[in-house]
Write a structure and sequence with these properties.
By secondary structure, the protein is α/β, with parallel strands linked by helices. The protein has one domain: Aldolase class I (TIM Barrel), CATH 3.20.20. It is 41% helix and 13% strand. The protein has 14 helices and eleven strands. The protein has helices spanning 7-16, 19-33, 76-88, 106-119, 130-140, 144-154, 169-175, 182-195, 211-227, 256-269, 280-283, 285-291, 320-329, 370-377; strands spanning 38-42, 44-45, 93-96, 124-127, 158-159, 198-205, 231-238, 275-276, 298-301, 333-337, 343-346. The strands form three sheets. The chain has a four-stranded mixed β-sheet with strand order 9-1-10-11. Helix 3 (76-88) links the parallel strand 2 and strand 3 (93-96). The longest helix has 17 residues, at 211-227.
């Protein structure tokens, strides 16, 4: 059952296998690779240092052009304010990313890492996606490797896997033609792995892709992991169309069955990835809980602060105790991890924990069910 599935067989399986069959196989593999009874999560936040961007991705509601109303770029000191909030909330990781802003040279990024390491040594900096690394290299007249080595020397050790969307050139040309090509994304991650970084891989589906494109994406990251291991996890989520230019083309939401099919198939196909992550944040609380029975062994983060999905009207928050409750509702034991997917706390005999005031969730921001999210989203234009 665990023998490798190759592209054509995988495409047929993805398109035609009953969901229950994919689920069964995914659970088997998940339980071979990870504790059958445990689901991990992380206490984190996802602020941004700039929303200025010239890539003009049609699926993005977050970016602003330089000088436009609402455009911002934060100083290093202002970004440290977000880490201070994370510290006060008892968080362990800050996932920092931003738009493609040509005014920000490599010194800015190095200083972000150095300041974070110096002033917040207990918070792990999970900073900068592949396209940010690529752009810093481009505008600083450096190689990808030189940028990654400079950030490593400053103290960076992991990279988030955002910005991949679908690693198909056909899809890129359709939704983000100004963005670096799929091979560029792969190159950044392989170069990072060679230095010693750990990274994640993601996929945003539910727009113009076909099943073939999804297989192309999974095949590319699987091959990269074969060649230069370093991916810790794969996390898929669906495109949120409200307030985006692409909404004029994509008229329908990708439903929960599509999510469960992609999640379970990914666990089967990515035989060299140690973890597959659920996305309660992107797919709604109930679908997030159910996804733990489709091959996912990690529940992601609390995301105390998040602005990219919020820009589309998708507003949701959870706290430490919400994570414990949701994982237990799915029938698993929660375990807190770090950004290297190492367990740092278990909760046997602990029903709830004391929440720092800074982590407490305003009820208006608490995650509603998916039906409510969808009905609210219809009002956004």
């Amino acid at each position: 059952m665990t023998d490798r599935i190759f592209f054509e067989e995988g495409l047929d399986l993805f398109k035609n296998a009953p969901l229950e069959e994919l689920q069964r196989r995914a659970i088997f593999i998940r339980n071979q690779k990870n504790s059958p009874h445990q689901v991990t999560f992380i206490l984190d936040s996802n602020p941004n240092y700039t929303n200025v961007c010239h890539i003009d991705c049609s699926f993005c509601a977050f970016y602003r052009h330089k000088g436009a109303k609402g455009a911002y770029t934060k100083t290093v000191e202002e970004v440290m304010g977000h880490l201070e909030k994370a510290r006060q909330a008892g968080l362990k990781t800050v996932l920092l990313q931003g738009g493609i802003n040509d005014d920000l040279k490599i010194d800015y990024y190095i200083n972000l890492v150095k300041m974070a390491r110096e002033h917040y040594p207990d918070i792990h900096p999970h900073f900068f996606t592949a396209i940010e690394i690529w752009n810093v290299a481009r505008i600083s007249n450096l190689t990808i490797e030189e940028v990654l080595k400079a950030l490593w020397e400053a103290g960076l050790r992991t990279l988030p896997g955002g910005g991949a969307e679908i690693l198909s050139e056909r899809v890129r040309l359709g939704i983000s033609p100004k963005k670096m090509d799929p091979d560029g994304w792969i190159h950044v991650h392989k170069a990072a792995h060679k230095i010693g970084y750990k990274t994640t891989a993601t996929m945003m589906y539910g727009h113009i892709e076909e099943p073939h494109d999804i297989l192309v994406h999974l095949e590319k990251i699987r091959q990269a992991q074969d060649e230069v291991p370093g991916f810790t996890s794969f996390i898929p989520w669906s495109y949120k169309r409200e307030r985006t230019a692409l909404r004029r083309t994509v008229k329908h939401w990708a439903g929960s069955d599509a999510y469960f099919r992609i999640l379970s198939f990914s666990r089967i196909y990515l035989d060299n990835f140690p973890h597959v992550g659920a996305s309660w944040f992107g797919e709604g609380k109930e679908n997030g809980i159910k996804s733990l029975h489709y091959g996912a062994d990690d529940f992601g983060g609390t995301l105390m602060e998040e602005n990219v999905h919020r820009a589309t009207g998708w507003i949701n928050r959870v706290d430490h105790n919400d994570m414990l409750r949701m994982i237990r509702k799915a029938g698993f034991e929660p375990a807190q991890r770090n950004s290297f997917y190492e367990v740092i706390q278990t909760y046997e005999g602990i029903e709830k924990v004391e929440i720092p005031p800074a982590q407490r969730v305003n009820e208006k921001d608490r995650l509603p069910d998916l039906k409510t999210c969808l009905s609210q989203a219809n009002f956004f234009t």
